[in-house]
Amino acid sequence: MEGQQSTSEPHPARILVSSTRKPISYINLAKRFLQEHGEVQLTALGIAVAPMVTVAEILKNRNLAVEKKLVTALECMRDDWRTRQKPKMEIILTKSPQFDEIIEAENEAPQTDGHLEGGAEEAGGKPLHAAADDEDGLLDGEDGVL
């Protein structure tokens, strides 16, 4: 499928992955899109491809999603002097058969004081909050909170 152009109409559950945000910030958003739409499209350009693959693999390894489609392409980007080609990748994931059971179990698990599963924290001891509601992609400061 290499070099195949993506569809002209954007996917209703599309996540544009950035290299500046932590992959964990996309996981809750992807889970929400999987619940609402049954599938999610992850898209990345250039150096953001690696974090996007990380997000997809985390969802697959937790048995939340199954890979449906993978598209690679070279996107032409123009600057003042020349045209450059940047790698682009799109992954479409669908809900796994176990998705609803896993989400139900996560929702029944006792919630702690804002920490993610297992008390995940950054090196500075600050809680690492998922930015699932941060649709515009802006985070407040280094600690990853909204």
Automatic annotation (TrEMBL):
Compositional bias per record (Acidic residues), positions renumbered to this chain: 133-146
A cellular-component GO term for this protein: nucleus
Gene3D superfamilies, A to Z: Alba-like domain
Region (Disordered): 105-146
Domain DNA/RNA-binding protein Alba-like: 15-65
Family matches, as InterPro entries: Alba-like_dom_sf, DNA/RNA-bd_Alba-like, UCP030333_Alba
Single annotated GO MF: RNA binding
Classification via PANTHER family: DNA/RNA-BINDING PROTEIN ALBA 3 (PTHR31947), DNA_RNA-BINDING PROTEIN ALBA-LIKE DOMAIN-CONTAINING PROTEIN (PTHR31947:SF36)
Name of the featured protein: DNA/RNA-binding protein Alba-like domain-containing protein
Species, as recorded: [Myrmecia] bisecta
